[in-house]
Amino acid sequence: MTLLKLINTVLLSVLLLMLIWLLYLRYKRKKVAKILTSHDFNEDLRRTQIIDLREVDEFKAEHILGARNIPFSQFKLRYKELRMDTPIRLYGEGMALPTRAAIQLYKAGYRDIAILKGGYSEWTGKTKKAEHK
User: Fold this and answer.
1) Nearest Cα to Cα of residue 71 among 101, 94, 95
2) How many CA atoms within 13 Å lie on the side-chain side of 95?
3) What is the mean pLDDT of the chain?
4) Which residues pair with 114 in a beta bridge?
5) 88-91 and 49-52 beta bridge pairing
6) Nearest residue to 79 (alpha-carbon basis) of 42, 39, 36, 109
7) Which distant-in-sequence residues (6+ apart) come within 8 Å of 115 by Cβ?
8) How far is residue 57 from each of residues 18, 53, 70, 117, measured CA to CA in Å?
9) Domains defined along the chain, listed by start
10) SS3 119
11) Model confidence over 29-76: pLDDT tens digits?
């Protein structure tokens, strides 16, 4: 029975730490970026930098019209390509990677950051799809 109690304690601790981590990310996301619905994200896109954080193959298959691909796996090396004086709109498959990217941008001095609520699957605006030959 002692081993079972130990396993339960470890699992409970892991779950508690995960919950704390998710709450922390949610708090940080609200502090560093605006969360925008698809409709709000779509407003005035021409005056923003739209960054797709998904990997290259996902981006090539389909992406928001006018978006630039900086995969999250390369983000730490490439975020300096972004202009500080132009609003930044981030999206990915969900909210986790855009949140982490927004936190990194905020720490680097960027301030006008927004994230697409729900990720790319919630996008209702114009897209560009791969051309099939």
Assistant:
1) 101
2) 16
3) 93
4) 34, 89
5) parallel
6) 109
7) 29, 33, 34, 35, 36, 89, 90, 91, 95, 98, 99, 102
8) 30, 11, 12, 22
9) 33-129 (3.40.250.10)
10) coil
11) 888 999 999 999 999 888 999 999 999 999 999 999 999 999 999 999
Dist. CA 65–CA 97, nearest whole Å: 20
Q: How far is it, in rounded angstroms, from Cα 55 to Cα 69? A: 8
Q: What whole-number distance in Å separates Cα of residue 52 and Cα of residue 120?
A: 9
- pLDDT of the residue at 91: 98
Listed residue (102, 89, 93, 97) closest to 58, CA to CA? 93
For residue range 115-128, list pLDDT tens digits in order: 999 999 999 999 99
Residue closest to 78 by CA, chosen among 56, 57, 60? 56
Residues present in the chain in total: 133
- Which pTM value belongs to this model? 0.82
Segment holding 101, helix H or strand E: helix 96-107
